[in-house]
Description:
Layout: H1 6-22, E1 30-34, H2 39-50, E2 54-57, H3 64-74, E3 76-82, H4 86-95, E4 100-104, E5 119-121, H5 122-128, E6 143-148, E7 158-162, H6 163-177, E8 184-187, H7 194-197, H8 199-206, E9 209-211, H9 218-227, E10 232-235, H10 237-249, E11 258-262, H11 269-276, E12 280-287, E13 294-297, H12 302-305, H13 309-315, E14 321-322, E15 327-331, E16 338-339, E17 347-352, H14 366-369, E18 376-384, E19 390-395, E20 400-402, E21 405-407, H15 409-416, E22 422-432, E23 436-445, H16 454-465, E24 477-480, H17 494-500
Parallel strand pairs: 1-2, 1-3, 2-6, 3-4, 4-5, 8-9, 8-10, 10-11, 11-12, 23-24
Antiparallel strand pairs: 6-7, 12-13, 13-14, 15-16, 15-17, 17-18, 18-19, 20-21, 22-23
Amino acid sequence: MHRLNYRSVYERVCAMANALKTLGVKPGDRIAILGWNDHRYYESYFSIPGIGAVMLQLNLRLHPSDLIYILDHSGAKALFVDDTLLKLAEELAKGHKFDFFVVMSDKPLAQISTSLSPVYGYEELIAQNPKTYDWKEIDEKSAAIACYTSGTTGKPKGVYYSHRALILHGWASNIALRPEVSDVSLVMVPLFHVNAWGMPISMTMVGCKQVYPGRYTPESLVEIMIKEKVTLTAGAPAIFMPILEVLRKMEPKPKLNVRATSGASEPPLAMQKGLAEFGIKIIHGYGATETTPIITINLPKSEIKALPEEEQWEHMRKQGFPVFGIEAKLVDLSSGKELPWDGRSVGELYVRGPWVIKEYYNDPRTREAITPDKYWKTGDVGYIDELGYFKIVDRAKDVIKSGGEWISSIDMENWLMAHPYVLEATVVGIPHPRWEERPLALVVLREEYRSKPAEEVERELKEHLSKKFAKWQLPDKILFVKEIPKTSVGKFDKKVVREQYKDLYMR
Length: 507
């Protein structure tokens, strides 16, 4: 456990900036970092970009071959690595030439065994260097941080964030969510995942208390929320759902006071209602690696507050309206024409703005993703209502086409997860000899229901689905599994599921 005030953090940032300069780091150099959510990673958000270098965030959940591709593609000069990840770093060092390594640890470097060379201790560098630094003005449009997409289709794509984009994004986030200096922010989103959704920067702008949980479990996160009196956090449903399970088992029932931004995938309504019982209010947000990440936020306008309570809950499932600075439009998938914001017309969302990418770094796939007028094609299909709220119907690649009709996998997943038996569920379209595609559902049951006969549970779930979906839309089969494959950022990996079950209906 480390407790630091902003003054001491600033002094440590200055010391590391001096150290990097002494080690020969120059403006534009890429410095990779491989670590957990802790104070040293947080400090690196300022020390590395502060001298004009680029902090390259490495997603430690990616395969080493993808990480080596990222290191080569970016031309990384050095690597900061947590001492628990040295084995991975040593594997990466076999495939990419680094100038030097910095080990982030509480232990003295002399107590750490590694084949990395030349290697320096983070804390030793802090202790050996001056605690002040003569900061130079940096071109605001130069790169500050780089993050690579998780590579679900092809090799990872490089997204480079400018100093200007990061600051404007921080202001926009704070205007939307209105954090205060008295708030306590728990940064659960991995610091390597789209800048932890901008929280290290936006929370520092406010000057509130920030809590970095290191390597965590749902149990440790709940403990931190209670002990540190957390009032703000952000995360994906993949972590909020286990947190809810922990809270439900606790006696006495804790009562928190937390505003929690949820992203990555649509938060199931049952999860939102369950967390609300413990004082965790979910605010749905939407964004992407390519957008730093915020695009929309679901805050209730006066027209929404006037609705009956159940309708308000239903509305909270929408992705929200574009924050100030974002331009958005809907485009018809077939004709390419712009569609009206009428709550009915369904198309792909295009966005542009000062923190939306204009290109992927040194990558020809830019031509497919960015329009001539600099709109980024999100790949998300949905509609925008008259009040400006966007609702995702599906990913362009995930929407199910059965017999010429479209079926939303996201709506079906969320309705399945509203059933008390279901812990997690995903729905994909797989080939069918007659209907082109038919839905298949994969379900992880809650522990207390796993002993029930599968036929009985499947029948119960199909009856539940029939309350919201037409008979022809229901999945032909519901399979019960121990876990659902996930991507490196915690989303259901539908590509893997489709490949695994592609022949199921063709037999």
